[in-house]
Amino acid sequence: MVLTTTEFDTIAAISTPPGEGGISIVRISGEEALDVAKKIYRGKSLDKVASNTINYGHIIDPSTGQEIDEVMLSVMRAPHTYTKEDIIEINCHGGIVATNRILQLVISNGARMAEPGEFTKRAFLNGRIDLSQSEAVMDLIEAKTDRSMKAAINQLDGNLSHLIKHLRKDILDVLAQVEVNIDYPEYDDVETMTSKLLREKATDVHKRIVQLLQTAKQGKILRDGLATSIIGRPNVGKSSLLNHLLHEDKAIVTDVPGTTRDVLEEYANVQGVPLKLVDTAGIRDTTDKVEKIGVDRSRKAIASADLILLVLNASEELTDEDRQLIKATNGKQRIVVLNKTDLPIKLKLNEIKQLTHADHIISTSAIKSDGLKELEKLISKMFFDEGISSSQNDVMVTNARHIGLLNQAKQALEDVIKGLDTGMPVDLVQIDMTRCWDLLGEITGDSYQDELIDQLFSQFCLGK
Amino acid sequence: MKSLRVSDVKQKYRGKNYDVIVVGAGHAGCEAALAAARMGNKTLILTINLDMVAFMPCNPSVGGPAKGTVVREVDALGGEMGRNIDKTYIQMRMLNTGKGPAVQALRAQADKHAYHAEMKHTLENEPNLTLRQAIVDSLIVEDGLCKGVVTNTGAKYFAKAVVIAAGTAARGKIIIGELMYASGPNNSQPAEKLSGNLEELGFDLERFKTGTPPRVDGTTIDYSKAEEQPGDATPHHFSFESSDKNYLSVKDQLSCWLTYTNETTHKIIRENLDRAPMFTGVIEGVGPRYCPSIEDKIVRFADKSRHQLFLEPEGRKTEEWYVDGLSTSMPEEVQQKMLHTVAGLENAEMMRPGYAIEYDVVAPYQLKPTLETKIVRNLFTAGQTNGTSGYEEAAGQGIIAGINAGRRALGKGPFVLKRNEAYIGVMIDDLVTKGTKEPYRLLTSRAEYRLLLRTDNADMRLTEKGHELGLISDDRYAKFLDKKRAIDSEIQRLNQIRIKPSDAVNQFVEAHGDKPLKDGVLASVFLRRPYVNYQTLLQFIAAPDAPLDRHVVEQVEIQTKYAGYIAKAEASVEKMKRMEAKRIPDRIDYQAIDGIATEARQKLQKIHPETLAQASRISGVNPADIAILSVYIQQGKIAKLKKSV
Predict the structure, then answer these.
(1) Residue A71 sits in which domain range?
(2) Which of A114, A169, A171, A92 is nearest to A430 (CA)?
(3) Looking at the structure, do residues A302 and A194 belong to the same domain, yes or no?
């Protein structure tokens, strides 16, 4: 029987974020990566260059002989590469058109378009990285700020793996002791694993898992960004607030702003917290089509936001539209921004306090940059209490699958305790302890479940 | 090593034809032969020594955790071990009674002579079965098919299927200190030639080691210095067919006695380690970690000041006692000294020294789950030959090998027990999937679904299969169905009756420190309380129409009390079944699959797992390899589909 497989085709993709960046990289991985590159590259003979070298040359369309771009081409030979396959990276002069053209040439000369996450999938399948590491790579690519980058890198280092393995070891010790008592009931060599001991151990592991899960809330924000919506009537200063938050000196990892009108999300780094600003195009549009922006459009943005920045014009009295917006955002995490405080103030603070149930209120003048630092501090404080840091040693759980498994493991331990409470014998209670052990093993890939791989790789997005 | 054989027969002769031949009449061979014969096959069983049929060369005991459950499984499949021990035990104990139902374990002390005689008699009286003394020298194999055996006396017997259950006889070698000689168990003749023949046929053999302690004269033991361990008063049986009225009272059972080694014992051992074959490199075979020799224990657990020793009687008509825990291959003189340091054994006369025995094992990766070998068709192996240790493990494999050999002879398909169906299934899957680096012993922890594989429900799990195989009589099957119906109907009844918060109920509940009932509660829910059992439940609800058998009550209690856990286990079985359904094509070429790690590739190539689930259990095959394999198979199917369109 001859089996065919696409699993080991040579694959290619643009591995830099889309947009008009300075340099774009087209990556090729697979057995034929070098052959593909040779067909479209004019420069040094790629067969002769050493591994891990970067080579100057040109990309040529072999069918016309036309020069497409001036490039730097890296050659990395198997197995010491990310995917453990031959890898070629073509560094070209950015620009959607040129980069796409090169990718098309690569594909018409023997490579196949990579599926989302396929490079990482190969790294995993080729035994280069373990499960939690491969997930961390995906997080790293999507990391929005330095803080989230650090969380991603820690995980890649195997910190989470290490911690989980530690937990599993502790559980295994307990399990082993229970087992010995069962299989060698008459031998007095081993201390009997009593309900009391089992409860102590279960409670201890439970506590540690809960701690780990507490980092998940912040981890999710660090990874996915804090969905933030700037709401307000036209001309209250949303645009300038947005521009301040997106100020140039802030590290913005992804999606270069302003390249397209379709960009609906932008990221701002606010004291290390990545703010995912929803419907920024809507805000920018206001300069063209002021009238179209109203409560209706805002509703959508409100619904999907974790945080609302409700901007009011302090130099005007509260309008019906303001009141409607306050009502529409009640019950949300909200900061009321009283803008234009540089002008004479007409807004009644007491009324606002009453209407907003004494929410966070901050006075700013976007034009004079007054109060903006305070706003940033407030945001950071709201979501990251001082107690939580992301120092080098802290492990932060950021991946949805890990969180799900940790929650199940926590549940299993609660079942252990519940079983002990209802007087179940140790060897039955131990079943839930074993389940906890298995679930933790799934995080590090130490136990295999059928659905795991499929689910994992369908979550991946394109890139490294 | 020099051969014991002085000369060979000059002329061979053709013996009768059989359907199935079983080589070896130990615990595996007996079950294999009986199963094959009872399925209607003309069966021949050959043994090196007729006086060693179902012989117990080590512990005179049957059962224990996991092992006891195997005995019940063998019984539910129509096997003999359970009935045989029920007829010949001298002590019966249920272990782990303080723990849950999944790990309760029955163990009997056997009268080893009666046990042997009883089993031999059963074989002799089995209509389709011939029992004969002979040593098998070689197999008759043509074109990869096993067609029969050749004996040392020159007989050629032909058959449709052959089962080898050679135990420790295969190139056996006994070691006592510096003394070393070719021998089967207990100074019987070894099978010197069969191993070589298996190697010629292409089998990969391994060398294992096991050992046994010295036996002492019971009239020289000072029992006052040891702690008595009597049998149970409550009736227990291995066989589901045995009845309570035949159960021995405690005074009719024989006790075991507990004593300990001490620092003096350990000092003697340490001073003589240079004479211990275990450490001088004389012993090549791999011994079991779970049953180490005393010298091994002293070296590995140097900080322990004492080790338990159980003194076990070997039978009613002998004064020989087995010193459990003192397995050793030290020189005889040292063994004597060791014994005399132990409380109660100061003046004990040693009757036989302990010894280590090395023997050949067919590396079990060469077997299918039916225990048929992969390279020689119609050839099956069972018991210690497959790398296990223990009478129960042997019997469990024996019955499966016998059933499959018998079904092959009858032209029927394979019979395999799954991991969620029986400990036997766990054991065989472990052997053929993971192999074993030491003599394999069943442990409850090897079973991921042990709550389902209880000792109490072996009949629920397997009687139906035994009946389908033709090994359980219609009469026994009908009784089983009655029991099952009684259990189901009582569970159903308890699910319908409500217990009202009467004064009597609440008095009872409060007496156990619980809160009084406010509303009515289902009888089945009430039964789940730890302090309620079926008998106490009957104080508050009407009794069933007819009083229930104690075995029915036991099932009702367990299935109700642990329903939540049982449901969880069953859910995880369902999950496994989905993986078990993903079959790996027979002719898959692992060399052609890129990306599988080298170690995993070698293992897969060697073991040729039948399903993805089995592949995932192979050590050294990691999830990434399974993912690749899964993708590869999936794509093969797609390719095939495309081709056929």
Answers:
(1) 5-129
(2) A171
(3) no
